[in-house]
């Protein structure tokens, strides 16, 4: 649908229903809070400090978290929320609107929320605005559309009208995703005392990881490197032959062993290609949940891979290693996957990235295949990994 037509329809919907969905803002201490974080694994890892600090500020509040179904395993054991709901909007404006209405009617509107927070820094979506609005929350906060330097007003401001308050970015600075979530607390006159990531696991997760490592006969005293070959976008996938070159050299120099992680069709394809060249590698592709992947990383301690969810799990686990990014160093207008916005924090993971975008790409790599990231030479990644292993 044309964005201007969609924006016009969104405004009509808002005007027609604003009297029925929490049109009066409430400034008191919230007792019922709706938190929307409906994107990917890495985004949710970056949000874990916010959930902890929100609970610390409001120990008696009832907190509902809405997340993507694929991320549920990561937050299932979170002690800081009272309820977790999953939602994935269907494609299309009308279908998403219908699904949001039905979801809010079934799960949200009867709970009388005082506050709804949509956390992503600059990823405006109609469905999130509708869920916040249809929930009936009296106070609804989100970052304003176009808050980042690079962000075009793709929604023509029509998403913003669904919120009672908008967070702006007057200094035009780029915040890390963790900082942007914690910024909500200061806007609510609350404080944050700790920005460390936190992942919640249980005994069943630990037992399963122990079983897998035993089945694969992985020597925990050896120099083990966890390798993640695939991401959610093809243009963020570094060629497998580059990983093979780096790992062969690390195996030759340091006697390193390699443990492959990941999930999905691309991960399976890349793992088969990798194992044809390095048949001694241990392939855990599709064998671990998100929480179990975190425990594998925590136990083995060294990461080599692309910019994807497990990279941030590795950061939470305190790993050393290398993350290969498609986002360039010299981009004056950073995209969503830039290292300013979305680097692993608080750990020994080094970022290796291209110097610049290739011709034909603007702001970020836009090709549906490995393109700008192919400029990262295997030799550079190898050199950084050698420095980490020699430290």
Please describe what this structure looks like.
It is a single chain. Strands 3-2-1-4-5-6 form a six-stranded parallel sheet, with helices on both faces. It has helices at about 5-15, 40-55, 70-75, 95-105, 125-135, 175-185, 205-215, 240-255, 265-275, 290-300, 310-315, 340, 380-390; strands at about 30-35, 60-65, 85, 115-120, 140-145, 165, 225-230, 255-260, 280-285, 300-305, 320-325, 350. The chain is an alpha/beta fold. It folds into two domains: about 5-185, Glycogen Phosphorylase B (Rossmann fold); about 205-390, 3-Layer(aba) Sandwich (Rossmann fold), CATH 3.40.50.
Brief write-up:
The protein is an alpha/beta fold.
Please describe the topology of this protein.
Elements: H1 3-17, E1 32-37, H2 41-57, E2 62-67, H3 72-75, E3 83-86, H4 93-107, E4 115-118, H5 126-134, E5 139-143, E6 165-167, H6 177-187, H7 203-215, E7 224-228, H8 240-254, E8 257-261, H9 265-277, E9 282-283, H10 290-300, E10 302-306, H11 309-316, E11 320-324, H12 339-342, E12 348-352, H13 378-390
Parallel strand pairs: 1-2, 1-4, 2-3, 4-5, 5-6, 7-8, 7-10, 8-9, 10-11, 11-12
Helix pairs in contact: 2-6, 2-11, 4-5, 7-10, 8-9, 8-13, 10-11
Contiguous low-pLDDT stretches (5 residues minimum) are none
Give the overall pLDDT as a whole number.
90
CATH architecture of the largest domain: 3-Layer(aba) Sandwich
CATH class of the largest domain: Alpha Beta
Provide the gyration radius in Å. 22 Å
Number of domains: 2
End-to-end C-alpha gap = 54 Å
Enter the CATH topology name of the largest domain.
Rossmann fold
Read across the widest sheet, the strand sequence of neighbours is 3-2-1-4-5-6
Oligomeric form of this entry?
Answer: single chain
Biggest sheet descriptor = 6 strands, parallel
Q: What fraction strand?
A: 5-15%
Give helix % range: 25-40%
Q: Class by helix and strand content?
A: alpha/beta
Please give the count of helices.
Answer: 13
Care to count the β-strands?
12
Gross morphology is globular
- How are helices and strands ordered from N to C? HEHEHEHEHEEHHEHEHEHEHEHEH
CATH superfamily of the largest domain: Glycogen Phosphorylase B
